[in-house]
Amino acid sequence: MNSSTAINALVSKSPATAKRTRALFAALTLASALSGCAIFPHSSNAPVDQKITDNVERRFGQFGELEAPNLIGVRTINGVVYLHGIVATGLQRADAESVANGVIGVEKVINSIGIAH
Q1: Are residues 6 and 55 in the same domain?
Q2: Which of 17, 49, 89, 107 could anchor a disulfide with 76, C-beta 3.0 to 4.6 Å?
Q3: Does residue 57 register a pLDDT over 50?
Q4: Could you give the percent of the chain with pLDDT greater than 90?
Q5: Paired strand residues for 72
Q6: Cα separation values, 33 from 8, 38, 39, 77, 90, Å
Q7: Can you say how many angstroms the Cα of residue 30 is from the centroid of all Cα atoms in its chain?
Q8: Pairing label, strands 71-77, 80-87
C-alpha cells in the first residue's frame, strides 16, 4: 500500500478522522519544510538575534494561551522573527504574532504557525 492509498483510506473513514489526518499531514509537511537550517539566511549579529528570540519566548510565557499544549518555535535572523509550530485556534496564532511584534528589536514577524482543528 503506497502512502496516497493509506491517506485515502484514512480520510474515507469519517469526517472527524479526515480532519485529524489532514491536520497531521499539514503539521508534518510544515515540520519537514522548516527543519533544515538551509532555508534560513545566516545572522549578521547572532548574539542580538538570540536575545530577541529569548525575549519573544519569555513574553510567550506570560500568556498562558500560548503555552503547552501549543507548540510554538521561535527563530530570529537579522531582527526578523520566524514563528512556526501548531496552536489550537486562529486567535492564538494572531496573538503569538502580536506578542512577537511587541518585543524590542523585532523588525518583522514571519508567522508560519499552523492551526490544529
Answers
A1: no
A2: 49
A3: yes
A4: 51
A5: 85
A6: 23, 10, 8, 17, 21
A7: 8
A8: antiparallel
The pLDDT tens digits of the residues spanning 82-98 come to 999 999 999 999 999 99
Examine the pLDDT at 11 and tell me if it is beyond 60.
no
Q: What is the mean pLDDT of the chain?
A: 80
Examine the domain organization and report whether 48 and 33 are in the same domain: no
Q: Quote the domain boundaries for residue 6.
A: 1-37
Per DSSP, 104 falls in state T
User: Mean per-residue pLDDT for 17-40?
Assistant: 56
* Domain identity same for 32 and 44: no
Domain count, the chain: 2
User: And the C-alpha cell for 70?
Assistant: 501549543
The answer to whether residues 50 and 30 belong to one domain is: no
Q: Where are the beta strands (DSSP E) in 6-107?
A: 71-77, 80-87
How many Cα atoms within 13 Å fall on the side-chain side of residue 95?
Answer: 19
* 56 and 106 fall within a common domain: yes
